[in-house]
Specification:
There is one protein chain. The protein has one domain. It is built from two helices and no strands. Helix 1 packs antiparallel against helix 2. The protein starts with a helix and ends in a 17-residue tail after the last helix.
């Protein structure tokens, strides 16, 4: 029986040591669980932040793409306007050169005492053409100004009517 009491004591002692070991490990395990839970929460926060930043980046990229498209359209419009203005200016230069040549010929004819009706008619026709080209140049400049004003008004007040309907009124070349 002595053996049984001794075994019983040994088993009790072993169980007490196991309980103490479990008690010591339990706070450590709980601390580790708390660390895992905290790190998991931080990871989720970082993922949320990362997805928010990714959305912001997408929005900025979209905005930049829209701005680039708007600037390209503006560049195309201004390039077309410049080409039209250059064409009108070239026509104006040509008509002015013709007018100078006709006026020189008319001066020579008047200077020599010969008044040629054909030279006078050609000078008048060239001068009239010069006035028409000058009017076209003024109209192109006015349309450019109206276009810019209409664009500025539209940017500041989207409900305002555009000047597009009035630009071509009264154009009788």
């Amino acid at each position: 029986m002595n053996d049984i009491s001794e075994l019983e004591t040994r088993i009790t002692t072993a169980l007490e040591r196991i309980s103490k070991g479990i008690a010591v490990l339990s706070p450590q395990a709980t601390g580790a669980d708390e660390d895992v839970a905290r790190l998991t929460a931080e990871l989720e926060d970082e993922r949320t932040t990362n997805s928010q930043l990714a959305e912001r980046v997408k929005a900025v990229q979209q905005s930049r793409a829209e701005e680039v498209d708007r600037l390209r359209n503006e560049l195309d419009r201004l390039t077309a306007q410049l080409a039209a203005d250059e064409a009108v200016m070239a026509q104006l230069r040509q008509v002015n050169a013709e007018l100078r040549a006709n006026n020189d010929a008319l001066r020579e004819a008047v200077g020599s005492g010969v008044a040629d009706a054909d030279l006078v008619n050609a000078a008048m026709a060239t001068e009239l053409e010069g006035l028409r080209v000058a009017q076209a140049a003024d109209r192109a400049e006015l349309e450019a100004v109206l276009g810019e004003l209409g664009k500025l008004i539209a940017e500041n007040d989207p409900n305002a009517p555009t000047a597009g309907g009035t630009e071509k009124e009264g154009t009788d070349a």
